[in-house]
Amino acid sequence: MNNVEVDRISSLPDEVLTHILSFLSTEDAVQTCVLSKRWKNTWAAVPILNINHKHFLINGCREEDYDCSGDSDEEQRIDVARSEFNSLGMSAARFQQFMTGFLDNRPPTNLERVNCVCNFQCWDRTHASMGWLDRVVLLMPLQIHIGIMGGGFSLDIPDLVFSCASLQHLSMSLSSLVKTIISPVSINLPSLKFLHLSVVEFHDDFAEKLFMGCPSLQKLDLSHCDLYFSSISSKVLKELTLISCNLYEQMQISCLNLVSLSMLIDLARGDISLKNISSLVDAVIELDLGDDVPNLNILGSLSNVAELKLYLVTPVLKEQLEKDIPNCINFNNLKKLVLEVRWDMCSDFYLIACLLKHSPNLKELELLLDESQGQIQEPRREISEDVLFQYEYLETVKIGPECEGELSSELINAIIKTLGRYVKKIGNLIIA
User: Fold this and answer.
1) Do 399 and 412 form a contact (C-beta atoms < 8 A)?
2) What is the pTM for the complete model shown?
3) CA distance 92 to 379
4) Is the dihedral of CA 161, 165, 166, 168 positive or negative?
5) pLDDT of residue 308 exceeding 90
6) Distance in angstroms (rounded) separating the CA atoms of residues 340 and 366
7) What does the pLDDT read at residue 330?
8) Where in the chain is the domain with CATH 1.20.1280?
9) Residue 30 pLDDT > 50, yes or no?
10) CATH code, 1-46
11) Rg of the Cα trace of the chain?
């Protein structure tokens, strides 16, 4: 960058300069202080901090340096490992020194967002400290996003993070085979609206503190978590997402203003019930059930949804939902129904027929089928009188594979023939 270019950029207003610097890593933003007097303190007003541990590694933690395959000399590999071990301590100290100096010299101006990526695989493998977040919280950030790589350690998140009055958005994404337990002494986040946690072991104690200490929480997103708590109860929560989570307790979800619900969970033990969710507009349901799970009772709680996606991926879930049909009242608001089916629906259409009959205002039906289905068979199950009906008209029917693949023409024709028993006319038939 020549002097003319520096001068042109330097003439820009402070707001523009700090916006530009917010796209750089925090370390690079600080280094601009050497350009000229104009830039000496510009870094201190940047509203977004982008912090990444890898910028402080001296010799790497490079994957190729740990490759013990091939004909590498054993003594050379030992020397590389010893060198890396020594440099990691220096890198950790360098990072801590930088963060301390940076945060101590940054004025308490409005801080919008903190993005931090930590790789504890390269540092202390038994204890992961995030103590510098104490100083970050004193800057009253609106958002904190933390991504952590590594596993098999205890994670030290300062309690001050869970009592930040300004915080509206908190995201902690861990990459590990071992679930991490987060256990703050208390939680007091009055402004928090969105919380995302992944690869966390979630206990009753933490759950109770969370829902009591976050009176403004509107969106809760848990992924790849082990859930050891029994209740999600909120009067303000609007969106709830439980993705690839394992449930170990009898759980009740009771949220008066819930609008969106996504549940892709493994009921390792216990079951789940839905109450007081009459505001629900769209729902995505996939449950992996054990053989000893009690009867489900969820269809009756979904009666007001406008869009429903059911992933019927296990025979046990299909059987449980069939038992739940008597508890189901009409889905009068349902306009779109998406079903992922992993059985020969032509030979056993009972559950789908029941869902169609209870959806009198349905406009769009999407069927995602197992492309590996074998030879089409004749119906094995008689459709009882209670589901003998026929739609006059469906606007759209989509038929496609559940994954990337191709459905056989025989299967598609059989599905269309089966649907013809229940739908007189289809406006738009789409084959994926």
Assistant:
1) yes
2) 0.80
3) 66
4) positive
5) yes
6) 8
7) 86
8) 1-46
9) yes
10) 1.20.1280
11) 28
